[in-house]
Specification:
Blueprint lengths: L1 H24 L18 H12 L14 H14 L1 H6 L1 E5 L3 E6 L9 E6 L22 E2 L2 E3 L7 H16 L8 E6 L10 H10 L6 E10 L10 E8 L1 E10 L3 E2 L8 H14 L8 H10 L5 H8 L1 H12 L3 H7 L2 E9 L5 E2 L2 E10 L5 H12 L4 E5 L15 H13 L4 E7 L15 E9 L13 E3 H18 L4
Parallel strand pairs: 3-6, 3-7, 7-16, 8-15
Antiparallel strand pairs: 1-2, 2-6, 4-5, 5-17, 7-8, 9-13, 9-14, 10-12, 11-13
Helix pairs in contact: 1-9, 2-5, 2-14, 5-14, 13-14
């Protein structure tokens, strides 16, 4: 009997191994096979000088200070006109709400659906007290060691000027797009984008314009970040998480600290916040994350390929590992971030109220209403009020990776960055492109900025920079993308 049981177990084990092996190696590559193209000849140093000049213009957005940088935005507009005269002669430029720019490049085929390239003019402030940590003046636009240094060189004047450089080259070549091309450059992306990209979207909707696709800043070409992948990975953001802030408040009778009651405002609120951190929204490898791993798995080496190709078996183990990383955890769930706590004003007085703000980035498939209900269940205390605070928005629709626009992006990347693995990804931050959802069939968030793990803290952080060579690659990318988009299908 024992021999029969052992034999059955061996057969089952062999069948399991066979299924794992078959599932691993039957998954062929999903990468487009295209011939590399010669890089565009670009005066990279001259382009770097123009970007440097833009970095020196302090188009900083501050919460609650609308149009505080009006003079700086006007300087940037003048610089754009001076730097790209052919583009300004060939394209129509409109100014929206004083400072956002919409360029229209008429297409030769009235029946062709228009497209849009986006970037934003504004930048975030320098965090107070960190100025001395910069290796270069954050608004000096210094060119050193092969890089353009300063706030906005990466986010997002690098993209804005690369788009304009590409347009200038194409106009000089006599190129005319088949479909109308819109270039949209908002001025308030870093504080929500309502008066910039939001207003541009409303204008297009009022004009009855429907875009085939939109491409905005977003995910990057990463190198050495995905374990088990020895090639660069270009992740194209096919969706964007939603945004919600909830205010939690606890009220209690104020009094002297020498006679504390069993339930204090601070104690109740602290318990509620601890319960929220302990009871996170559920994580799962689904939606965009599942598609990303399915696409990348055949390109992986060794054990990682086996694990990602067999999530039906190894899914729980893989999910457990992904939850340990802050960025990968954010791909799998609606995140909970305790961001503000306020209570008390004197050490010997019990406050009558304690307040906190909790910020959520909502995964596609979840909703703001569902998050609020989750919070009430997790807190499980009727004495804690839960209310929405500030602006919020739901997750964007997921743009299909099977669409021609996605294939256009993938083709362009593979042509200019041979060997790079292209896969859909989830944008965990916010971009101006979400405002275009009512007027666009598809939205993709990607720019070919090269980044290694050590570069990621530069985004909104200290020592922001972009290499001269990479900036030239951005110009070549937008140039090639517009040429490819104009081909007749």
């Amino acid at each position: 009997m024992l021999k029969k049981i052992a034999l059955i177990l061996l057969i089952l084990l062999a069948a399991l191994f066979a299924a794992i092996a078959a599932n691993t190696f039957r998954q062929g590559s999903r990468q487009l096979h295209v011939a590399p193209v010669e890089p565009l000849e670009i005066d990279a140093n001259a382009a770097a000088q123009r970007l440097s000049a833009a970095v020196r213009i302090r188009t900083v957005s501050h919460d609650g200070k609308r149009d505080a940088g009006a003079a700086e935005f006007r300087k940037l507009h003048a610089l754009l006109e001076q730097s790209f005269p052919r583009t300004h002669a060939a394209l129509k430029r409109e100014t929206i709400n004083g400072f956002s720019l919409l360029y229209t490049w008429p297409g030769s085929d009235p029946a062709a659906q228009p497209i849009m390239l986006m970037a934003h003019q504004d930048v975030v402030p320098i965090a107070p007290g960190t100025e001395q940590d910069w290796q270069a003046d954050p608004f000096g636009g210094e060119i050193r060691d092969g890089f353009v240094w300063g706030r906005g060189s990466w986010d997002d004047k690098g993209n804005l000027f690369a788009i304009m450089e590409a347009a200038e080259l194409l106009v000089a070549e006599g190129f005319k797009p088949r479909q109308t091309v819109y270039l949209a450059f908002g001025h308030d992306e870093e504080i929500g984008g309502l008066r910039g990209a939001g207003a541009i979207a409303e204008l297009l909707q009022a004009r009855g314009i429907r875009l085939q696709f939109v491409i905005d800043e977003g995910l990057l070409i990463t190198e050495g970040i995905l374990k088990g992948l020895d090639r660069p990975a270009a992740l194209i953001g096919t969706a964007e998480k939603g945004y919600l802030t909830l205010a939690l408040s606890a009220a209690a009778k104020p009094g002297h600290s020498s006679m504390p009651p069993p339930d204090t405002a601070i104690g109740m609120l602290s318990t509620a916040l601890a319960r929220l951190e302990d009871r996170q929204m559920p994580a799962a490898i689904r939606g965009v994350a599942a598609e990303m791993f399915d696409t990348i798995a055949p390109e992986m080496n060794g054990l990682n390929r086996i694990l990602l190709s067999n999530l039906w078996l190894f899914g729980p183990a893989v999910k457990s590992q992904l939850e340990k990383g802050v960025s990968t955890n954010a791909m799998l769930r609606t995140t909970t971030a305790l961001t503000v706590v306020q209570a008390g004003g004197k050490e010997n007085v019990l406050p009558g109220r304690a307040d906190a703000l909790v910020n959520f980035r909502i995964l596609p498939g979840d909703s703001g209403e569902g998050v609020a209900e989750h919070v009430r269940r997790a807190v499980a205390n009727d004495a804690i009020t839960v209310e929405k605070r500030g602006f919020s928005y739901e997750p964007t629709p997921i743009s299909p990776s099977a669409a021609p626009a996605y294939r256009l992006l993938a083709r362009t990347v593979r042509e200019l960055f041979p060997g790079t693995v292209v896969a859909p990804g989830l944008m965990i931050g916010a971009t101006d492109s979400r405002h275009m959802a009512p007027v666009a069939d598809a939205i993709y968030r990607f720019s070919p900025v090269r980044a290694r793990a050590e570069d990621l803290p530069r985004f909104h952080g200290t020592n922001e920079r972009i290499s001269i060579d990479n900036h030239a690659e951005l110009i070549g990318f937008y140039h090639r993308l517009l040429v490819n988009a104009s081909e007749k299908k």
